[in-house]
Design a protein that fits this description.
Rossmann fold, 2 domains, ten-stranded mixed β-sheet, seven-stranded mixed β-barrel, 32% strand, globular, pyrimidine biosynthesis
Length: 377
């Protein structure tokens, strides 16, 4: 019989403002509900996006890729399993700019829960609104595209802020090099807002991980392979990372990109990126591996993946030698690329999951195998 699990339940979590809270979109639409997060003592602007994930809000809210974004949850009930221990977070803090839900549950239960979602939002200074018709709001974002918005307590005129106009990556990347010792190959992890489970995944393969800032010239380091991480914002803002990647391509050592890392590899190769109408944010995105990619376990198979990105690669601009590895089964957009003759591969989805399925965890397995083969040459 399994040991007793600690009951973690709380009634009546703080709703704080106990009053109305308003989400105003840049097109003038207004959605009114009740505040349950941090006190709304000022305007909270951001880019309004939606996620169709059913669970995993602890991991999602601590994902640096959500920096500057007001997140709308399409799943109708949020908060009912509380917030787990910090060791399950994907970074040291919450990164969303605001949260919009249909119904917030102020009672919760889960064996790993340590506090309510409302309490975590308050600690993090992040506003949240419950009682919103999220189905109607999501339909607007799906048909019109993601747009700027702000959370306030009144409909007075205010400012909107587009996080993509600046280099958001610079605000979430680590500031100095950090090394995680292992017994295997030396892997450079370029931290553009890396999720912690990327580090855990590499360490599980015995790798020594050299985690460096987004603008660090990693080509001067001694390494066996490079992984370019996920991160927030417009990839074209990361000019330093793109320049370093161009030099890394010349070295010919294995490189793997994840999410933003994929877009940066494409830009370094000479391709272009574009902003998706409403992005891919959920743990249920279907991706089909292209036949002939000579890498996957079952080419032509459809994998259910975890994703969080608002930009994609323009397939028509891929230079000679680069090919499509994965496609999104919903909109046919590029979800992965690879070089035909060199050990360069990347995926838009998150093979490390957290949250979401681990169907594509083999991407890490194959990357490490590629690194080990290259090291023997």
């Amino acid at each position: 019989m399994a040991g007793k699990r600690k009951k973690a339940q709380k009634k009546g979590a703080i709703f704080n403002g106990k009053g109305k809270a308003i989400l105003t979109l840049e097109n003038g639409l207004i959605f009114e509900g009740q505040s349950f997060g941090a006190p709304i003592t000022k305007q909270f602007p951001g880019e309004v996006v939606f996620t169709t994930g059913m669970t995993g809000y602890t991991e999602s809210f601590s994902d640096p890729s959500y920096t500057g974004q007001i997140l709308v949850s399409t799943y109708p009930l949020i908060g009912n399993y509380g917030v787990s221990e910090r060791r399950f977070f994907e970074s040291e803090k919450m990164h969303i700019a605001g949260l919009i839900v249909s119904e917030y549950s102020d009672s919760y239960f889960h064996h790993s829960a340590r506090q309510s979602l409302a309490d975590w939002l308050i600690e993090s200074g992040v506003p949240a609104i419950t009682g919103i018709d999220t189905r109607a709001l999501t339909k607007v974002l799906r048909e019109k595209g993601v747009m700027l918005g702000r959370i306030t307590t009144s409909v007075k005129n205010g400012e909107f802020f587009d996080p993509n106009t600046g280099n958001v990556v610079a605000t979430v990347s680590i500031k100095k090099k950090r090394i995680y010792a292992g017994t295997g190959p030396r892997i450079i992890l370029v931290d553009c807002g890396a999720k912690e489970n990327i580090v855990r995944s590499l360490l599980s393969h015995k790798a020594t991980v050299i985690r460096v800032p987004w603008d660090y010239d990693f080509t001067r380091e001694k390494y066996d392979g490079v992984l370019i991480s996920n991160g927030p914002g417009d990839p074209t803002r990361c000019t330093a990372t793109i320049d370093h990647l161009k030099r890394a391509f010349l070295k010919g050592k294995p490189i793997l990109g994840i999410c933003l890392g994929t877009q940066l590899m494409a830009l370094a190769a000479g391709a272009k990126t574009y902003k998706l109408k409403y992005g891919h944010r959920s743990q249920n995105q279907p991706c089909i591996e292209e036949k002939g990619s000579h890498f996957g376990k079952a080419q032509g198979r459809c994998y259910i993946t975890s994703q969080n990105h608002g930009y994609a690669i323009d397939e028509k601009t891929l230079p000679t030698g680069w090919k499509v590895w994965f496609r999104n089964a919903n909109d046919n957009s590029v979800e992965g690329i690879y070089h035909a003759t060199k050990p360069f591969r990347s995926v838009q989805f998150h093979p490390e999951a957290c949250p979401g399925p681990t169907d594509t965890a083999w991407v890490f397995d194959e990357f490490i195998k590629t690194v080990l083969r290259a090291r023997k040459k």
